[in-house]
């Protein structure tokens, strides 16, 4: 019974992790929505790392690395940015010695459709394919069948249940998404409101992910709904960004509601246009946790730091404990003339 509980926990937690683990949702863009690969007009490189703690002291970490290259089409002088090609590497481990591991590779393609002449409205679509590998390290596990009633634990005794478990499970992942953006031009000293809304479907093919032999476990398709707006002040130095993110799977809902506040600082001692942005924000994950976030970014670099404070012991997203997450990204500027459609950077 204990074995089955551990393996079911492994399946459920790891499956949720690859879809909903990061609290800085937009710092792991291709894990939130494949269509986000068409947003950034520059070469993008980003990493996230999140660590959980709980009373059982079972270390649980999640990491991802994403790179995205914009696609430009010659001859389209008005709107040359047509999308992007991206790659995401994903890894999560559980246990003090990483007994349980889930890793994956995702390849992403996106396409931008401009809806009007001044590029105030755009729809971006994305398709993502990849492969994941769940692995159990038997060398780091001990089993009840390995205990001798007279001598105690004997590592030479083979676990009786080992033959029922697959050490490695490899399965495909196919995902897709759409995003609509509205980015009106700010004319003069007037407040402007920019909006976006997206939907993504993950795990479309529902492959068998079971680590138990002769057992079929097909995880559900994940539906992600996310959206928000940027309310830019008349003097363009303050932006308020309320956001909503809803994840649904297996008839469950994870609702995240929050807002970012970004203040723009212009460095008058340096080159004109050398801008710096400070961001603070908070999220509430319904019935689960509060999230506090801090970030900094300029044209090339961004940094984010967040902390999850758990308020419930019945949780599917943070193992019943607190969590710390850090994100870093770097951009190689490609085309400064292309209109930028914005989402939060953390």
Structural summary, described in words:
- The chain has 346 residues and is mainly beta.
- The protein has a single domain, classed as Porin, CATH 2.40.160.
- The chain is built from 2 helices and 16 strands.
- The strands form 2 sheets. It has a 14-stranded antiparallel beta barrel. A two-stranded antiparallel sheet has the order 6-7.
- The N terminus is likely disordered.
Brief characterization of the structure:
By secondary structure, this protein is mainly β. It has helices at residues 2-20, 29-32; strands at 43-52, 60-72, 81-94, 100-114, 121-136, 147-148, 152-153, 168-182, 192-202, 222-232, 238-249, 252-266, 275-285, 289-297, 301-310, 323-332.
Keywords, please?
two-stranded antiparallel sheet, disordered N terminus, Porin, single chain, mainly beta, 2 helices, 346 residues, 16 strands, 14-stranded antiparallel barrel, elongated
Write the layout of secondary structure elements.
Elements: H1 2-20, H2 29-32, E1 43-52, E2 60-72, E3 81-94, E4 100-114, E5 121-136, E6 147-148, E7 152-153, E8 168-182, E9 192-202, E10 222-232, E11 238-249, E12 252-266, E13 275-285, E14 289-297, E15 301-310, E16 323-332
């Amino acid at each position: 019974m204990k074995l089955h509980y551990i393996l079911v926990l492994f399946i459920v937690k790891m499956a949720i992790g690859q879809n909903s683990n990061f609290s800085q949702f937009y710092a792991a863009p291709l894990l939130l929505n494949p269509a986000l690969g068409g947003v950034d007009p520059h070469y993008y490189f980003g990493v996230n790392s999140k660590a959980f703690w709980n009373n059982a002291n079972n270390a649980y970490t999640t990491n991802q690395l994403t790179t995205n290259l914009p696609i430009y089409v010659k001859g389209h002088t008005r709107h040359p940015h047509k999308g992007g090609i991206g790659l995401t590497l994903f890894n999560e481990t559980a246990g003090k010695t990483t007994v349980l591991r889930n890793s994956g590779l995702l390849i992403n393609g996106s396409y931008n459709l401009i809806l009007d002449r001044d590029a105030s409205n755009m729809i971006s679509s994305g398709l993502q394919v990849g492969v994941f590998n769940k692995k159990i390290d038997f060398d780091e596990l001990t089993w009840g069948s390995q205990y001798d009633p007279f001598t105690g634990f004997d590592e030479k005794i083979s676990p009786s249940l080992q033959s029922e478990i697959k050490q490695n499970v490899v399965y495909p992942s196919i995902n897709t998404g759409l995003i609509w953006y509205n980015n009106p031009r700010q004319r003069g000293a007037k407040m402007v409101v920019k909006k976006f809304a997206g939907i993504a479907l993950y795990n479309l093919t529902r492959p068998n992910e079971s680590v138990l032999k002769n057992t079929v476990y097909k995880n559900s398709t994940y539906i992600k709904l996310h959206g928000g707006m940027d309310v830019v002040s008349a003097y363009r130095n303050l932006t308020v960004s309320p956001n909503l993110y809803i994840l649904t799977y297996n008839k469950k809902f994870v609702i995240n509601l929050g807002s970012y506040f970004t203040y723009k600082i212009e460095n008058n001692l340096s080159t004109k246009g050398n801008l710096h942005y400070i961001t603070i924000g908070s999220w509430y994950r319904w019935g689960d946790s509060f999230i506090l976030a801090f970030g900094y970014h300029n044209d090339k670099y961004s940094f984010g730091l967040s902390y999850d404070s758990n308020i419930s012991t019945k949780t599917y997203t943070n193992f019943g404990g607190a969590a710390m997450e850090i994100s870093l990204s770097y951009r190689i500027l490609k085309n400064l003339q292309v209109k930028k459609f914005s989402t939060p950077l953390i």
